[in-house]
Structures are given as C-alpha cells and as structure tokens.
C-alpha cells in the first residue's frame, strides 16, 4: 500500500515538474493566467494546492501555515564584484529568507455582508506641493497611468463576474498620496480603517511608499507596489508588502554591465534629480562603477522642474566625463540632453526607465537618438496577453499603456486572483501571494517573488533607434556580467524545517 | 576561578531531559547524559566572559502568567501598547483604550463613541506629575486623557507635524510625539510646539517610529525608520545620531560595529546602556561598545522585533513576531524566550546561554500570543501587549541577573508539576 502511494506521489510530482519545466523553457505556451482545476472561479495551479490547504484551513489566531519558506542564494541578483565591501563576507545577510506573518489575522472571520470588494489605490494623481517628493509634485502623469492600469484590471474582473464567492463586484477606492506632510500615511490609514479595503495597490515615490508601508505593516493590510523602483522599498522586512516591478538596483546593474563591461566607458558622470528617486536610484550605478574600479568623478543634483542645467553640465564637461547618466523625470532628462547638445557635449546619454515616457522623445526630438535607458520590462514582446491588454487599454482610455499602466494592471490582477482564492481575509490574501510558488504570467512577462517578496523579472535596455525605442535583453546585446555567487553561509541562521532553497 | 571547560560541562544537558525532569532529577540525568554524543559547546566568541558561570546560574523565569482578552473587557484583542502605573495598567488597542484597575481587576474601556478621538492607540505615556494619560493615535494625532475628558491635538489644530503617531513620551514639561513625518514636542507650560525634521535634526529620513525619555540622563531617544537612533540632550538641545556604520540595507557587515540596521523600531535607555530594536535584530550600546543580538546565535525567538524596553543595563525585553525575547543577563549572555503553544494556552520558557539551550520550563499558562507588540515593567511584574490579548507576568521572587540555585525554585517546580498534571 505504502509502495503504491509513494509511486503515485512520485508520478504526480514528476508530472508537475515536467509540465513546469516545459512552461519555463517555453516549450508550451503559458495558460492564461494559470492552469489547473479550481473551486474559486479562477485558475489555480496544482502546485498551489498544498499552499491553499495550509492557509485556508487555519481558523484560529494561533496557528501559522506550516509551509516551506523561500530561501534565496543571492540578494538582488548581485554580481560578486558589485557587492558592497569587496570580498568581506558580512556577518549577516538580510532578505535571504522569506518573510513570515505570525500574527492572528487569519482567524478574523469574513464579513457577513459586503456590497463590493474594496481594493485601495494609492498614487500621485493630483497636482500638489509635497515636501516628501522635493517640492512641487511631478509624478501625476505616471500616477494617472498607473491608476488606469488598476482600473482596467478591476473592470475586467467585474466583467468576468466580480468576486465569485459572493457575486459582488470589485471596487477601486482611489486616494492621492503626494500631499503635504506625509499625507500618504493618513490616506492609507483611511483606506485600512474607514474604507476597510482588503488590499492596496500603487505608490510610486519612494518617500511616500515608505510612509505607506509602515502603516500597512501596523494595520496589517497587503500592499502590492506596482510603480516604486526605489531599491530600499522592499529592504524593510515587512511581510505585508509585495512589489511587481523590477527596481533600480536591477536596472543599475544592467546599465553598469553595459556601460563599463560592454562599452568600456572609463569616466561616467551622473546628473540626477535632487529627490529620493534620484538619490536612491543612482546608488547602485555609482557604487557599481566604483566597485569596478571606475569611480564616477562627479554626481550633480538638480531641482525637479529646473530649466537651466548649464552649471551642472559645465561641471560634468570640465570633469571630462565620457558619458552621462541621468536619473530623474522624462521632461527634466530631455531638457538636460538638449542643453548638453547645445553646449557641444556629445557624450553618450544613459537614463532611467522614466525617460522612456513620451515626454522625453517629444522634448528631446532628434537628440533622443542613441539614448540608452534601462527598462523593467520589454513592451515589444510578442505576447498575445500583452497584445490583448494593449488593445483593451487603448480602447478604454484612448492612449497607449506605458510601463506603469502595465505593471499596475498585472499587480491588480494578481491581487484580485489572491482575493478570489484566499477569500475576504487580509492575512490569507497575503499568504497566497507570499507562498505563491509559480511565476505570475502577466502582461509584463513572468513575475516570481524573491524571499523579500520582490518581483524577480528580467530587465532590459531600450535604445532609441529610428525615432522609436527598441528593447534588448542582456543576451541580445551580449552584455557580460560578473559572477553571481550562490551563498550558503546564511543557511545556519534559518530554521531548516521550514526552508526551501531557491536558485538565484 | 572555575576553568572554562569545567564550567561548560554542565551545559550539555539534553533539552528533553530538562523538559521532563525536576531540578534534582535533571542534575543527575545530566551527569549520565554527558557520556552521550552531545556536540561540543561553541567556542567563546562574543560578549563578556562567562567564566565562573554554570548551568546552575539561572535568570529569573516568569512561570505565572495571566491573560486578558475581549472576554475580560478589553475593547479589542489586537493590542498596540501597554503602560503600567502604580494603580492601573493602560492598554492601547487597534480599536479602543482600556484601563485595568490593578486593585480590583476591573477593566474600563473607551471607544470613539465614548469620546476617544481615534480608534487605534499606538503608544501611551503617563505624566508623573499630573497623572494625565497621553495617547499616540495611529492616524489621529495625539490625545490627552485627563479628568475623564479627551483633549485632541492633530495636524489642523496644533503644531503636531503629522497625525500618524507611533510613539509618545513625557519629558519634564514636554510631550514628545514620534510621527511619520518628523518629531513634535509640545511644551505643556507655554503651549509651544517644536517640530524636528531633517531641517533641524540629523534625520536622514523623517519617519519617526518610537520615542522614549530617560530621566536619569535627561535625554530623549528617537528610533527612526531609515535614520537609526537619535539622542536629544534636553539640557543642551543637542542631537547625537547613531546609524548603521556599513550603510547598506542588505547586510550587517560586522555585528558589533554599531546599530545593526538603519531601520529601527524602538530605543530604550537604562542604567547607562542604550538598547535599540529593529526588524533585523537588536543591539545594545554602553557608551563605548556595541553588541548586536541575532536570534540564530542567542536563542531569542526572532530578529523581527516590533519594540523593546530596557529594565536595566543588563536586562531588556524584546517584542518579536515569534515570542517574547529577554536578554536576562547581558554579562553572562543569558536569554529567556517565552512562547505560547498553538493548540492550548500553555507554552514554554526556554533559557539560553550563548545560544545554547540550558533549560526548558513548561508553562501551564503562557503569554497570550506569540506576536508581541509592546511591553512595560511594573515593579517585579511585566505586562506584555500581544496581537491577541494582554499578558501579565507575575514576578513573585523576581531577581536581577543570574543566581546559582541550590534547589528547584518553587515557581519552576510548580509550573512543571502543573504542566505534567494537565497532560
């Protein structure tokens, strides 16, 4: 009897592994969005069954799911030669083990009656003055696209029957996050306690995001970030926070590899916005250049919305930089580029993903040719899911979706899936996302959470060629990388019975 | 002085034997257990010397716990804060304030419909001069409860910098509030508000998370998310900052080189030592040396620490997501971890020295929940705010440090016996 059971178990597991491997290799098209039987009205992979069994069976405040924790072997896919402090092994590596929630929230019963299933949206959608973002607000164009992506996902879910268990629609509760004096904190408290949302999507600015996630931690509400690329956002150990967009750390690593290892630049100058986005965005670019023995000779900061950059650019010119990297908004980046060319500076121009916005090309015109930007995804990918999304989005809003709209759509769809599966319980919604063991097949590609609950997505370079952006993978451009070390020296700090080592 | 090897030998007692046996029985079982293939004790690596310390040198273990939930009158089981005074214990929950009368055991509670300005109370402090109770409201500003009346201070009617308040502390004639957009200080005499942000204090980030006042040195300590710990000298109004020396988020380069992480959750000063907690572990500073505490090398329940409070330079209580962790005696690297069972109200107290399990004491009644959010001391007793109820540790016969016990302490024997009976 035992032999038969073991044989059946081996066959089932093998079949699952083979199917998964085929899917990962691309031998079979990925199902939309997941395959497998489900009692929840949405597809659920077979591999999620033990997760759901463990999570959904909890009814009391004292038990926690007895599920393997993801243990990474490398943080942030960081090449060995780009790690801090050279070759000194640190005493402790953080973010290598999946965060747990051990509180009593899973025992909170579902409400008897709901008219809608509320999902909060937090983002910069209204023009204001914000201390946190360094003066006048400037991210509304991004925030509004993010909102559209979230709206589209909610509308799509409602077209398909809304929240299946109760036959009620999903509702997006929208709040502005870039008000004065840390208003994002007040807004998220309002969402958590007054509106009683089940989860929150959004946030772009790193400062507002940090304020919001501290509230999410205390109020115990899941938060899926779809637009904040600040590396430190996820480096906070908050088990309620997820991110589905590749961060500036990953983007900087690709730029470092391209600029220094591929192109062979020796002196890179940096010009960046004097706000948290600029300050933290370039950090890995600056540190990476130093760690490769080619330190950035000059890093200039400018005020957001500044029109004259001649002082900053003259300093860079005088420093003899061979290339310039910009980290800031698209409009500022374009004006800097134009002024560079006016000053006779012909250096290559590298930039962050925000410069992929339409404003950059409009303002920079022909100067944009040859500009290289990092990108958290490849929007030129030939993918029927992406094509359908683009058509649906354009039809609904009359504009093409951008990076932030696409990631918001994916993040919101993922969240809706989690609510459908977990039910109306914040802790269980968190759990099914945190313990999700298959990549999410979204419009931006595959998203798999790391131990830090950060989206592990491939990043790309976008090069302006022939008046349009063309996207290239690392492989397509044959960009070399440093060795990615697989660490095991942190495993002794992990309870072995609850861990599952993942490949980096 | 006892040699190191002989002092370590008794530590080889297997945990299972300790769990089941009485004090005398454990000692004899330990002798025979030494012949078994136990791993060698770890080499001395951190902290101060433990020369002359043996297994018999144990810290005080809280074996008597009583718990309170909504069934006992709390307005909500999800506690955020607790503050003990001579007469009462004040409890801040996610939905209401409660006062437990220590003499009668009666619990009185207030919600928004009773005048409480906002439902969630993250922090409580009591003015020793007036008895006024100050409340930090999570999204509602600050409230003063005095004479049965709530006075409400918020962004729109005062100089409070932000309504998302994580901590309050009474300092002389001032009330400090740690908010998500800086710290505020309210002068009770003049009514003046001061605001401290990156403009006038060494805050790399302004996301204040906790505030405490140390009257013995007349200093205020702020734990700041992204800015380590700040010390404010009340007399000179000068700031001093303590930040993570490696300045990297993803690693702690050296354990004892300073604050272990720049994201801190609480700071507490006692008897010349500053203790700081983080979601990455905790640390202690004696003015000259730092020492970091991680779960994997101490026996503490977890690195994820919501809050801490120091009882002395040698003892501090850590509120982790997996139980209560206590540095019971710093000089001997001795720890106690309190856990609750998932299936019943019982639990266990585990004693560690230098990461080695010395003793497990079964508890018939343990802490209310393992997710710990706040703690306060009340003489020899301790009050613990958990995510699912309030716990009262009764410190009958409490002593500081470690003691070489010649016989089974009555409280431990009683706990072991009661646990055996219940099985």
Helix content of chain B: under 10%
CATH architecture descriptor of chain B: 7 Propeller
Reading off the top of the CATH hierarchy, the class of chain B is best stated as: Mainly Beta
CATH topology of the domain at 112-246 and 381-452 in chain A: Rossmann fold
Average pLDDT taken over every residue of chain A: 88
Major sheet description of chain B: 6 strands, antiparallel
The largest sheet of chain A, given as strand count, sense and whether it forms a barrel, is: 7 strands, mixed
Strand order of the largest sheet of chain A: 11-10-12-13-14-17-18
Span between N and C termini of chain B? 43 Å
Report the CATH architecture of the domain at 112-246 and 381-452 in chain A.
Answer: 3-Layer(aba) Sandwich
Task: State the helical fraction of chain A.
Answer: 25-40%
Shape of chain A: globular
CATH-wise, what's the superfamily of chain B? YVTN repeat-like/Quinoprotein amine dehydrogenase
Give me the count of strands of chain B: 33
Number of helices in the DSSP assignment of chain A: 14
- Sheet-strand content of chain A, in percent, reads 15-25%
Identify the notable features of this structure and list them briefly.
heterodimer; A: 504 residues; alpha/beta; Rossmann fold; 7-stranded mixed beta sheet; 5-stranded parallel beta sheet; 14 helices; globular; B: 423 residues; mainly beta; 6-stranded antiparallel beta sheet; 9% helix
Describe the structure.
The complex is a heterodimer of chains A (504) and B (423). By secondary structure, chain A is α/β, with parallel strands linked by helices. Among the domains of chain A are: 112-246 and 381-452, Rossmann fold (3-Layer(aba) Sandwich), CATH 3.40.50.2300; 249-375, Response regulator (Rossmann fold, 3-Layer(aba) Sandwich), CATH 3.40.50. Helix content of chain A is 36%, strand content 15%. Chain A has helices spanning 2-25, 49-56, 140-159, 183-194, 206-219, 248-263, 276-281, 283-291, 310-318, 330-342, 358-364, 384-397, 403-422, 426-434, and strands at residues 69-71, 92-93, 117-123, 129-130, 135-136, 170-176, 199-202, 223-225, 241-243, 268-273, 298-302, 323-327, 349-351, 372-375, 440-442, 445-447, 460-465, 468-472, 499-501. In chain A, strands 11-10-12-13-14-17-18 form a 7-stranded mixed sheet, with helices on both faces. In chain A, strand 17 and strand 18 form a beta hairpin. In chain A, helix 10 packs parallel to helix 11 (358-364). Chain A starts with a helix and ends with a strand. Mean pLDDT of chain A is 88; it is low at 1-37. Chain B has 5 helices and 33 strands. Chain B is globular and about 60 Å long. In chain B, a hairpin with a 2-residue loop joins strand 21 and strand 22 (281-285). Chain B has one domain (52-422): YVTN repeat-like/Quinoprotein amine dehydrogenase (Methylamine Dehydrogenase, Chain H). Chain B is mainly beta. In chain B, the strands form 8 sheets. Chain B has a 6-stranded antiparallel sheet with strand order 24-25-26-27-28-29. Chain B has a 4-stranded antiparallel sheet with strand order 2-32-31-30, with no helix packed on it. The two termini of chain B are 43 Å apart. Helix content of chain B is 9%, strand content 44%. Mean pLDDT of chain B is 87; it is low at 1-49. Chains A and B meet through strand 2, helix 4 and helix 5 of A and strand 19 of B.
């Amino acid at each position: 009897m035992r032999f038969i059971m073991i044989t059946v178990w081996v066959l089932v597991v093998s079949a699952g592994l083979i199917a998964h491997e085929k899917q990962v290799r691309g031998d079979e098209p990925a199902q939309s969005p997941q395959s497998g039987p489900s009692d929840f009205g949405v597809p659920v992979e077979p591999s999620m069954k033990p997760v759901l069994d463990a999570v959904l069976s909890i009814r009391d405040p004292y038990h926690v799911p007895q599920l393997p924790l993801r243990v990474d072997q490398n943080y942030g896919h960081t090449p060995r030669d780009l790690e801090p402090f050279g070759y000194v092994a640190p005493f402790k590596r953080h973010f290598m083990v999946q965060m747990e929630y051990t509180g009593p929230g899973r025992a909170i019963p579902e409400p008897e009656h709901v008219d809608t299933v509320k999902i909060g949206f937090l983002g910069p959608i209204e023009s204001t003055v914000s201390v946190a973002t360094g003066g006048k607000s400037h991210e509304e164009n991004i925030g509004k696209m993010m909102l559209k992506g979230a709206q589209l996902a909610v509308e799509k879910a409602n077209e398909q029957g809304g929240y299946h268990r109760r036959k009620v629609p999903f509702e997006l509760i929208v709040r502005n996050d870039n008000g004065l004096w840390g208003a994002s904190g007040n807004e998220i408290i309002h969402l958590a306690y007054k509106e009683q949302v089940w989860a929150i999507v959004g946030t772009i600015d790193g400062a507002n995001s940090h304020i919001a996630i501290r509230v999410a931690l205390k109020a115990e509400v899941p938060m899926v970030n779809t637009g904040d690329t600040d590396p430190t956002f996820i480096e906070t150990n908050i088990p309620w926070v997820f991110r589905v967009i590749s961060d500036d750390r990953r983007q900087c690593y690709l730029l470092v590899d391209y600029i220094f290892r591929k192109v062979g630049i020796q002196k890179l100058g940096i010009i960046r916005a004097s706000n948290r986005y600029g300050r933290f965005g370039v950090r890995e670019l600056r540190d990476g250049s130093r760690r490769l023995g080619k330190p950035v000779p000059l890093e200039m900061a400018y005020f957001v919305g500044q029109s004259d950059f001649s002082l900053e650019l003259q300093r860079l010119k005088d420093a003899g930089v061979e290339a310039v990297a910009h980290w800031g908004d698209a409009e500022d980046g374009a004006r800097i580029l134009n002024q560079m060319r006016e000053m006779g500076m012909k250096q290559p121009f590298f930039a962050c993903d925000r410069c992929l916005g339409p404003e950059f090309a409009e303002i920079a015109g022909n100067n944009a040719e040859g500009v290289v930007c990092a990108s958290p995804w490849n929007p030129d990918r030939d993918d029927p899911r992406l094509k359908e999304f683009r058509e649906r989005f354009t039809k609904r809003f009359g504009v093409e979706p951008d990076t932030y709209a696409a990631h918001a759509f994916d993040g919101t769809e993922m969240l809706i899936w989690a609510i459908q599966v977990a039910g109306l319980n914040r802790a269980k919604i968190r759990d099914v996302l945190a313990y999700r063991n298959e990549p999410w097949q979204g419009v931006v590609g595959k998203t798999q959470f790391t131990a830090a609950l950060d989206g592990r997505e491939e990043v790309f370079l976008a090069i302006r060629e022939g008046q349009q952006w063309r996207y290239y993978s690392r492989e397509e451009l044959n960009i070399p990388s440093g060795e990615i070390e697989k660490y095991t020296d942190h495993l002794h700090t992990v309870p072995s019975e609850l861990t599952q080592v993942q490949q980096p | 002085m006892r040699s190191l090897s002989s002092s370590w030998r008794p530590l080889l007692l297997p945990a299972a034997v300790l769990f089941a046996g009485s004090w005398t029985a454990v000692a004899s079982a330990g002798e025979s257990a030494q012949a078994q293939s136990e791993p060698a004790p770890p080499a001395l690596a951190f902290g101060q010397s433990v020369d002359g310390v043996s297994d018999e040198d144990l810290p005080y273990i809280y074996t008597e716990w009583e718990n309170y939930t909504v069934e006992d009158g709390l307005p909500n089981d999800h506690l955020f804060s607790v503050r003990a005074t001579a007469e009462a214990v004040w409890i801040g929950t996610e939905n209401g304030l409660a006062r437990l009368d220590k003499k009668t055991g009666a619990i009185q509670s207030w919600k928004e419909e009773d005048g409480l300005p906002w439902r969630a109370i993250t922090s409580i402090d009591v003015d020793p001069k007036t008895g006024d109770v100050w409340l930090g409201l999570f999204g509602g500003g600050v409230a003063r409860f005095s004479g049965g009346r709530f006075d409400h201070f918020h962004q729109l009617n005062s100089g409070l910098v932000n309504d998302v308040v994580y901590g309050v502390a009474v300092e002389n004639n001032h009330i400090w509030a740690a908010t998500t957009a800086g710290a505020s200080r309210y002068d009770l005499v003049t009514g003046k508000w001061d605001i401290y942000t990156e403009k006038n204090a060494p805050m790399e980030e302004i996301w204040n998370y906790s505030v405490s006042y140390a009257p013995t040195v007349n200093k205020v300590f702020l734990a700041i998310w992204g800015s380590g710990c700040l010390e404010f000298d009340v007399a000179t109004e000068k700031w001093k900052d303590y930040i993570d020396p490696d300045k990297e988020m993803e690693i702690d380069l050296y354990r004892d080189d300073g604050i272990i992480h720049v994201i801190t959750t609480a700071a507490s000063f006692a008897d010349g030592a500053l203790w700081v907690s983080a979601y990455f572990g905790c640390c202690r500073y004696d003015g000259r040396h730092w020492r970091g505490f991680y779960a994997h090398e101490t026996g503490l329940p977890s690195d994820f620490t919501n809050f801490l409070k120091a009882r002395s330079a040698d003892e501090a209580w850590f509120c982790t997501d997996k139980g209560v962790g206590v540095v019971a005696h710093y000089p001997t690297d001795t720890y106690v971890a309190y856990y609750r069972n998932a299936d019943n109200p019982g639990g266990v107290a585990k004693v560690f020295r230098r990461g080695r399990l010395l003793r497990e004491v079964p508890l018939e009644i343990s802490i209310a929940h393992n997710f710990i959010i706040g703690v306060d001391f009340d003489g020899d007793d301790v009050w613990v705010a958990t995510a699912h109820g309030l716990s009262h540790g009764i410190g009958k016969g409490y002593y500081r440090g470690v003691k070489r016990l010649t016989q089974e302490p009555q409280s431990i024997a009683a706990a072991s016996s009661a646990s055996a009976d219940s099985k």
